[in-house]
Amino acid sequence: MQRQLSFLHYFIILALLALHPRLVEADSFDQPSLITRRMSISSQPKFQNWQLTDQEQQKTITQLILPLNVDFSLSSRTRIQITQSHVRSDLQSKSVGSQPDIERIELLGFGDVKAKLFHVFSDRFLLVGGLSLPTGKKEINREENMVSAALFDQSLDFEVGRLGEGWGFNLGTGYVHSFSNATVSLGANYLYRDSYLKKYLDFMIENPVYDPGQEYSMAVGIDVGKDTIQWRSDAVYTYHTPETLDQKNYFRQGSNLLLDSGLAYIKHRFQVELFGQYLRYWDSKRPDSEGDLDILIYDLNNRWVYGISARYRVGQKTTVFGSISDKQIRTHSDKKFSAIRAYALNLFYRLTPNLAFTSGVKISSGDMTQQVELSGLSLYAALTTGF
Fold first, then answer.
1. Which pLDDT score is estimated for 150?
2. Average pLDDT, integer, range 58-69
3. Euclidean distance between CA atoms 178 and 184, whole angstroms
4. Mean of all residue pLDDT scores within the chain
């Protein structure tokens, strides 16, 4: 049952991605949980820094996220999660090979409050509902929009692009059925996001009403194996309704398909996994090379991620997790857009039965279009307490 519900929870996270525009990285760390409590409070501050360097310019993009997460159980079958984040992002550039010509732009503010409700009807069926409250910062000027656009670069992995995204809600279900050595999972999700006014575009459009569109997602997964060898394979298909500005479909966003697989070897306290992830976009040509519409890359390219991860539990309180992964962004004609290698190391430590500490670091390097060198650093630390 625990493995079944863990997949359903994973699907729900994927189905809610429109409320959070970044896809889950394949090498992310699923930290051990505290002993079941009625309520837990956690904060996982995260710092990310990327440098993009070519022959003429070095651009530095940084982001600091200060979140607050509250998770509490209404009953043995129902729980609620509430999250709120304060985000600071900076974009700075300087010329290469001459006196520094520094330009620094800052985007600072709170994000939307997001609530999720999970209810388990039976050992096989799960229902989830999500609500996004428009508390985040939406009114930004053109300079702040340049920072927001840079955060949407497909080669990077910033967690927050836009601060405020307006009203939104979703409804999803998940179903699990187990056979002798296999578990099959099915899921469906509907996501609605309300339109809002982009006042900083008044200079080019008289009534710049932005409608992010709606999304319909379907997921299927299968887990096969016994205690030592386990194989998983998940697929999530998402259909987007038109994403418009002033009722015009500038974006032409199409559907996308996410495939995620892994082969794990588990022995006592040790686990090693080979994983792979493929993301395919259709019909996503976006004529926005200047970034005016919050999008830096006007063609949503396909993505490959593959690598190896290992986890080791040291005693009863400590778990160490590490991974090496390669990420490739390719155009629809299969031309390489960027290639990035990342090394991640994470530590989980249970201070007391009610208090846990988690920290992690990820170092990345690579290139984009064979002209821009990329280097990245990501740090986070989390403190979780339960009641």
1. 82
2. 90
3. 6
4. 80
